[in-house]
Design brief:
Rossmann fold, 26% strand, ATP binding, single chain, ATP hydrolysis activity, nucleotide-binding, 17 helices, ATP-binding, alpha/beta, globular
Length: 510
Amino acid sequence: MKDIVKTFGEVVASNHVNFEVKKGEIHALLGENGAGKSTIMSMLSGIYRADSGDIYINGKLSRIRSPKESMELGIGMVHQNFRLVDTLTAVENIILGEKSNKWRGSSWMKKKIEEIEELADKYGLTFPTKVPIWQLSVGEQQRVEIVKTLYRGAEIIIFDEPTSVLTPGEVEQLFLTMQELKRNGKTMIITTHKLKEVMTIADQISVMRKGTMIAQMSKEEATIQSLANLMVGQNMADEGFSIKVIEKGKPILDVQNLVVRTKLRINAIDRINFSVHEYEIVGVAGVAGNGQKELAEVLTGLMQLYSGQIVFNNEKLTAPSVQQLIDKGIAHIPENRMKSGLAGSLGIIDNLMMKTYRSNARAKFGLMKKKENMEWAANLIKKFDVRTPDMVSPVAQLSGGNQQKLLFAREIDINPKLMIAVHPTQGLDVGAAKAVHEMLVQLRDSGSGVLLISEDLEEVMQLSDKILVLYNGKINGVIDRGQANREVIGQLMAGLNYKEGAFYEPEIVV
């Protein structure tokens, strides 16, 4: 890619960028949120068109004007947010849109299933082929996406933040798959923020900052510290920061024998007990699908409990609405900021007012206080360092880090007694993630309680005063700060029990 320029209004997303990848290598493209790396990859995959510059594939000048043309050139992309139809099976997703002159009877589908299973086995990407996507784990869904690109003939595969939603075990499996793809001559480009993973898997590394390519090097020439400094343009320790030990206050949240059932009448949360105090961060660790989502939703009014009780600030909550919980002082950073947290088509001010537009500070006699709201929003933008071209641009156009800081600005502005943060740094670069961590610690130090639900073990271990490990909807272990390590938490996440310094398989009760 030579001298690539792409602008969005007055924002220069790609400023005369040059980017080169050799055949058969794993190339990591690093940068903060908003650095321009996703824009570059979107132009390579045909989602955007460059304003100027040239793209050469195998030495030949190529005009990529659509994803179809990109695919015909042997380029495939595994998106961070999977492009899959939940109600279709894995095989149906893979063959979706395929042209065929043959009659599509049962034998045709049977041959397709065999063909796809053979392709998946070749690269260690097995998954249930006849099961609807919504019944597959996140790791299995990602394998479907990878096989889909391979099935369509991809020789260059772009992975957009591929490990952001995976467990440690799934990350290891993905890296084994990447090595197998490399042995078969495939070329891979990874956009990521996780520096340790880059040093594990990448052959070559390129770093972007503010729309400009600032460095390209081999893995042997790089260190985690040097990459972090290049990304953010300042000296930044790779180990983050430590938080001071502080005495916890009175209980804010007390969960007693809580049971939450899914629509299929399965206990997603099965008789758990825990509490969150003032001046305390309680971390929740676990493999995806072990009840974390349901726990967050029942505590924020999005699901109803089946049995047990929730006591918040000495008040028993039976079936409160979302609005009632907001009024009581519960803030929520949802797992998917653009699906459940922000309205992408609306501007900064509208998104900031979502929880307070009824208040006297924001409206009078049902009419918005335009001037006051503009000043209030501008102050929040400055305080939380949200970088935006203006106050009316759709928030969907902001980088992921700025979207997350905007979401935190809204939630913290209501002065919450309890913050429920679900995967708060998912998909964020090292600088934005550190800013989010600092906001959570400041909340805790100011007397609020924080329930941190995350699949990032480093994050949970670094921030939490106490860690709960969920397995099959139950709390399989409680670990205090200072006693936690990856091995212990990983074994508990896998369902093993821990007693007297040793792990053992739990008894099976029939």
